[in-house]
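Sanity check. The docking grid for S-adenosyl-L-homocysteine depends on where the pocket ends up, so I'm generating a full predicted complex first rather than guessing from homology. Inputs follow.
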Amino acid sequence: MTVTVRSYLGAEDETSLGDDVLDGLTRPFKELPPKYFYDEAGAALFDRICELPEYYPTRVERAILAERAGELAALTGAAEVVELGSGTAAKSRLLLSSLADAGTLRRYVSVDVTEGMIRSTGASLAEEYPGLEVHGIVGDFERHLGHLPAPAGTRIVALLGGTIGNFTPGSRRRFLRGIGQLLGPDGVLLLGVDLVKDPARIEAAYDDAAGVTAAFNRNVLRVVNRELGADFEPDGFDHVAFFDREHEWIEMRLRAQRRMTVTVAGLGLTVEFAKREELRTEISAKFTPERLAADFAAARLETVELMTDSDALFGLAVARQSAPRRFRPARRRALAAV
Ligand code: SAH
Ligand code: AVI
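Predicted complex below; grid placement will be based on this.
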């Protein structure tokens, strides 16, 4: 059994948390990046979200994969799955099993900020798939993809769960462009995207009756308290989730119940919150096939197939690098004549 785990999170990441929090809390409209939700407690809360009746993305994406994983294995003949933001890899096992059955699977590479998850999932996968090489990277997929090992053969890069929706539009395209460069000539991107639908359905998924998403949202304040010596009172903030119809994304915010002064000792920072002032903690963009195609085009990718469920709730896109642009002699001649 070969499991290798490398961590690229270190002192500079505490600095990067500090910089992000300083930036976010001093903006005219306060915000914090969603990647800080996922300490061990946040990761456990996310797992509970995935089981909620209102949170359809996990269930539907799993069903699509269960139906189509065999086709994906046949289409790609992949030797390697590189999963970004892998979490517990619950759904990726469907893909790994199909590739193992097809006899092509050699290596699974996971990248996640949550170390415990990388270690425990890596150990379980190595046991479940005898002969599988497992390489775990504890790191930030926006900064550490340069540490991926060289490809072990045809690659599938998987970004599941709708995580791409947590990027703002410009960084989303930049990120997809970076992923394109990891694919090589034969590799594909497998991208889970939540689709635009009735806003009430989306809002319910982010504001569940049991209050698990609210606890997940407030957890980011606990992370900042612990890591940067802040004194946020998480229970002094209300969970807010609403669908922004113009941008077609859900926003999660935390709304101060009263006027508050928060100190972030590690940054020597004091922040004032007005009563009902909101702090944005996440956007989760929802896609149409057109938006996805435009993002892919901007990232020099093209859709091979967009697999969806019969209610078009969620999509699983297969994309590859677009063919390089052809040399156009006629246009060059015209330019030369000017
Ligand atoms: N892919 C899983 C988990 C999705 S939750 C699924 O589909 O269910 C998002 C995952 O991405 C979490 O495990 C979180 O720890 C990880 N994550 C979030 N931001 C990250 C970042 N910047 N770099 C690496 N991992 C990140
Ligand atoms: C990880 N990510 C895709 C989830 C989402 O749906 O945007 C995180 C989440 N936030 C609230 N519920 C789940």
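Relevant for the grid: Residues 35, 38, 43, 46, 50, 58, 85-87, 91, 111-114, 140-142, 160-161, 163 surround S-adenosyl-L-homocysteine (ligand 1) (CB under 6 Å).
Also worth noting: Confidence is low (pLDDT under 50) at residues 332-338.
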